[in-house]
Each structure stands twice: as structure tokens, then as C-alpha cells.
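hiii so um. not sure if this is the right channel but i have a protein structure encoded as C-alpha cells and i wanna go backwards to a sequence. like what aa goes where. can anyone help
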């Protein structure tokens, strides 16, 4: 692999063991995929999760073994700073709702220390999964190289913004730290061309439908790139659900939609090239099968969770308007995951009271799928006897991934209005 001067300097060890280890890791990653050189990273969304790495008890020969409290502190003493603009969104906690989340004082301090460490390295902690809704000065431009460790953000950046990134875990942080990433995957032109055609033959009625559509497509195409042919393009908040669903259904990192994806080709049949290897039709029956999997008429509802990914301020306001003047059934917990900015904006404009007066909570800075953002003992992994009961949600990602992590007894999926109605009545209609 061709390495520039900056890469060689980091590899020398003069910038500490953390930087040296990061570069060695990225070189090994690149070599395994046949990368010829490195690209310059301009932006990244990362998860540091230092405590998690400790808990995993990595084997001595692990390429990530250099990640430790010691090497991080050494880097900070050396004055090491991240070389690309970076934001973190660890599965932190909502410090305003620690009592409801049952977060111990010990864990509160642990997360505060984590945020402090990230700040010392130059990261900005936004405490939100949907970084694409929090971007300001460092939003990636068309064709720019970036990284992200958050699954649903990857197809969004690739498909909606035209940035270039792969599905990464630890490598995302290492790339932001070094400003480098091996040139493979979606960083190459040839891997961004759609090979699968998705013909949507069913009508999308709401926000949730787009998530279900994404899930179906993700399961069908796996890691491939597809192009959508549909009568009506999704609105911005619907695109968020599409990305969330498609990345949960399979390891999808990019798709094309004419009029949305900067690189998309015209979808008129006369203009579609012969590049498509497979064509799939998504029908009413396909959608029905998914919804039937998460159905349960008359079932008691214990917990209603909205906002996966976290709601932006506009969608939070819509939910608040639906809640105005209503009351949550006693015994039902109604929580909305939102970005920290959204909650503050809701407080300033006082529509947060429409939710709280109804008996609901606005939770931010955490993730319900990681068991740190649900009612009950934090981290259900260590509380095997605990269950949140019957869960109703308007997010396919939440429904799909929460069975194991949250040990829900019953998973119920429906549009936002239906979930709110269930919270008010206490049963799934």
C-alpha cells in the first residue's frame, strides 16, 4: 500500500502508541480489501466506547488491543488531537432522566469521564444517533470521504448527500484520529453503481411504511447497491426511516433515488442501462407480511417508544401536536427519543408540555436498542430477568432489533398515530 508522508510519520510512533496502533490497524484493514492507498477523511461520526473495549477482554493478538485507557491518556498528554472533524454519539445517557433510566451514580460518572476524554481529543459529543440532522459547518460535500459507525447514517450520507463511506465500527474512530482511511468499498467509483433495481408497486402511506420498505429491500439485496423506481419520492423525514430500515434489513450502505441521490441516473425505462443484474418488485403483500409479524389486536401495551432514529425538531413537534390535550393510560410508559437540540427547541417553544402533560417523556442522549434508554435497569444484558413488557413502536428498526436487547414480550409495529392511540387506550387496536 502506498503511504504518504503523514501516514509514515504516524506509523513511526512519534505521536504515541494510540496513533501508531490506529495507523497499523487501518493498513491491515486496507490490505485485507486490496486497497492501493489511503484517502483523506474530512468528517466522521464515531463511537469510542472505551469501557466496552475493556469489557470485551480482547485477546492479546487482537489488532485493536492498543485501545486502552493508558494509550488514550498518553495521547492526551502528548497533545494528540483528531485530524478530521469528528463527532461522537456513544450510547451515553440522558443526564436529565437518570432516575427514570435507573442509571447508577457510577455509570453517570463513567459516561461523564468518557465525554471528557473525547473532548480532550477534539471530538464533539452530540449524544445522538442521527448526526446527519445535527450537522452545521462540517457537513460532508459531494464526493468527500468520511466515516461513520452508526448503521442508519451510512446509507443517508452515501445516498442522500453524496459523501463516500463504508460501514465501519472501530475503524471510524481510528480514521478520524488519523485523518486517513484505506481506499476501498464505497470510496471507489465502481462500487457506487447500482446493480439491483427495486420497483415499488405499493403505495407508501406514512413514515413507518418507508422503514418497512427499507427492511424488505435490505433483506433482498444484502450488501449490493440498488436503484429505486417509485411513483413518489420520500420526504426528508421518510428518507431517515428508509435508511434506518434498509441498513437493519441487510448490510446496505448505499442506494439510488432519482432526484435525491446526487449520483442517481434517470429512472425512465428507456434510460435504464443494462447494468441491473436483478429486478425486484415490492408489493402490498410484501408490506402486509412484515406488519403481520408485528401485529397483536387487543394486546395490552406496556411501553410505547417513538423516535428510532431520534426525532428532529420538526417531527417532535408533529408528535407533540398529536398528543395535545390527551392523557397516557396509567401504567403505560410513553417515551420519545429525540436529539438534544430538538428537546431544547421544544422547551423553548413550550410544545414539550403537550407531551409531558400527557404523561410522556422526551429522552435524548441515549439509545433504546442499547438498553440504556428504556424504563428499567440499564443494560438488560446484565439483568436477564427483566423485560420491558409489550412494546409498541413506529420504527421497524426498533421492532426488528429490540426483541433480544430489550426482551420485549410482544413487539407491535404501526404508524405514529396508532402508537399514540395505543398509549392513550393501553391496548393495541
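sure thing!! here u go:
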Amino acid at each position: 500500500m502506498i503511504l504518504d508522508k503523514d501516514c509514515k510519520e504516524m506509523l513511526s510512533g512519534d505521536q504515541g502508541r494510540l496513533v501508531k496502533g490506529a495507523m497499523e490497524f487501518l493498513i491491515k484493514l486496507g490490505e485485507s480489501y486490496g486497497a492501493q492507498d489511503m484517502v483523506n477523511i474530512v468528517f466522521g461520526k464515531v463511537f469510542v466506547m472505551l469501557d466496552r473495549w475493556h469489557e470485551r477482554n480482547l485477546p492479546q493478538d487482537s489488532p485493536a488491543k492498543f485501545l486502552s485507557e493508558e494509550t488514550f491518556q498518553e495521547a492526551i498528554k502528548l497533545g494528540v488531537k483528531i485530524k478530521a472533524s469528528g463527532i461522537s454519539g456513544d450510547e451515553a445517557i440522558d443526564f436529565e432522566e437518570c432516575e427514570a433510566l435507573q442509571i447508577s451514580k457510577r455509570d453517570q460518572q463513567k459516561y461523564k469521564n468518557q465525554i471528557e476524554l473525547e473532548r480532550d481529543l477534539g471530538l464533539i459529543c452530540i449524544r445522538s444517533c442521527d448526526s446527519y440532522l445535527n450537522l452545521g459547518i462540517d457537513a460532508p460535500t459531494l464526493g468527500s470521504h468520511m466515516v461513520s459507525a452508526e448503521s442508519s447514517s451510512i446509507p443517508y450520507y452515501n445516498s442522500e448527500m453524496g459523501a463516500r463511506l463504508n460501514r465501519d465500527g472501530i475503524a471510524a474512530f481510528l480514521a478520524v484520529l488519523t485523518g486517513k482511511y484505506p481506499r476501498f468499498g464505497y470510496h471507489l467509483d465502481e462500487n457506487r453503481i447500482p446493480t439491483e433495481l427495486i420497483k415499488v408497486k405499493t403505495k407508501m402511506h406514512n413514515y413507518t411504511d418507508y422503514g418497512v420498505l427499507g427492511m424488505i429491500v435490505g433483506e433482498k439485496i444484502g450488501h449490493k447497491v440498488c436503484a429505486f423506481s417509485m411513483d413518489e419520492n420520500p420526504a426528508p423525514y421518510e428518507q431517515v426511516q428508509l435508511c434506518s430500515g434498509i441498513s437493519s434489513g441487510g448490510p446496505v450502505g448505499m442506494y439510488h433515488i432519482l432526484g435525491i441521490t446526487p449520483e442517481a441516473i434517470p429512472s425512465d425505462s428507456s434510460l435504464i442501462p443494462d447494468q441491473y443484474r436483478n429486478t425486484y418488485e415490492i408489493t402490498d403483500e410484501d408490506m402486509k407480511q412484515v406488519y403481520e409479524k408485528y401485529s397483536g389486536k387487543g394486546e395490552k401495551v406496556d411501553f410505547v417508544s417513538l423516535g428510532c432514529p431520534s426525532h428532529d425538531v420538526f417531527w417532535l413537534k408533529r408528535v407533540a401536536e398529536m398528543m395535545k390535550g390527551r392523557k397516557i393510560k396509567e401504567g403505560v410508559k410513553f417515551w420519545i427519543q429525540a436529539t438534544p437540540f430538538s428537546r431544547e427547541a421544544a422547551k423553548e417553544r413550550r410544545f414539550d408540555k403537550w407531551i409531558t402533560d400527557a404523561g410522556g417523556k422526551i429522552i435524548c442522549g441515549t439509545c433504546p436498542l442499547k438498553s440504556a434508554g428504556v424504563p428499567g435497569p440499564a443494560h438488560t444484558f446484565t439483568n436477564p430477568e427483566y423485560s420491558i413488557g409489550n412494546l409498541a413502536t413506529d420504527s421497524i428498526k426498533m421492532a426488528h432489533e429490540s426483541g433480544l436487547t430489550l426482551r420485549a414480550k410482544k413487539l407491535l409495529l404501526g404508524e405514529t398515530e396508532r402508537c399514540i392511540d395505543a398509549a392513550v387506550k393501553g391496548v393495541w387496536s
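oh and Residues 74 and 159 are 38 Å apart (CA to CA).
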